[in-house]
Design goal:
Layout (H helix, E strand, L loop, with lengths): L3 E6 L14 H12 L5 E3 L3 E7 L6 E7 L7 H10 L7 E7 L7 E5 L7 H10 L5 E6 L9 H5 L11 H18 L1 H8 L4
Parallel strand pairs: 1-4, 1-5, 5-7
Antiparallel strand pairs: 2-3, 3-4, 6-7
Helix pairs in contact: 1-5, 2-3, 5-6
């Protein structure tokens, strides 16, 4: 019997942050919505959502882009999980990851937040860290650049050509995770290209 999954793209609201590394999770959600020819609509929980399906007759997907800033993403995510009666193990969080090289994906369920304040706040609001994550590698800043400045900067000119491929791969990973499970998604997306 089909069930409902919440797929959350972490990021910051507004045009100033749209193209930044910290918003790659929301870029992935835009790709998932575009594949389904859907547009985000405002939800009373403080997020933009798309209600759609993995494919006709399959699990329902609620694509979520919180309207809040990254560090306080948990409140709208938890409100939507309650609204749609989605358990934490079916809340997929897509986010940027400093500790993974650019152009690399890693998937996991549970574990620590690795210093990612958005993931930390979602875990706090859900009351558990046991939710699946699609971690999109953005790499560490060069030299002594502050990581906070790095994540809030746009992707560099050397990264931009590969960014659409990375976003599409992350969207594929979400679909595989929901459709076939974490292990299948890890086996496909953790392998070197």
């Amino acid at each position: 019997m089909p069930s409902t999954w919440l797929v959350v793209g972490l990021g910051n609201p507004g045009p100033r942050y749209e193209a930044t590394r910290h918003n790659v999770g929301q870029m992935v959600l835009d790709e998932l919505a575009a594949r389904r020819r859907e547009s985000f609509r405002e939800h009373k929980a403080g997020a933009r959502v798309v209600e759609t399906w993995l494919r006709p007759g399959a699990d329902k997907l609620v694509l979520v882009k919180p309207n809040s800033f990254m560090n306080v993403s948990g409140t709208p995510v938890a409100a939507l999980a309650r609204f749609y009666s989605v358990p934490a193990e079916q809340v997929v969080v897509v986010h940027d990851e400093l500790d993974i090289p650019f152009d690399t994906l890693k998937l996991k369920t549970g574990g620590g937040h690795g210093g990612h304040n958005g993931v930390r706040d979602v875990a706090r609001a859900l009351g558990t860290a046991d939710f699946p994550r699609v971690r999109v590698g953005i790499g560490r800043p060069p030299g002594r650049q502050d990581p906070a400045d790095w994540v809030l900067a746009p992707f560099g000119k050397d990264e931009r050509p590969n960014l659409p491929i990375l976003v599409a791969d992350a969207a594929d990973a979400v679909e595989l995770l929901v459709g076939e499970g974490l292990l299948a998604a890890q086996q496909k997306h953790h392998a070197p290209r």
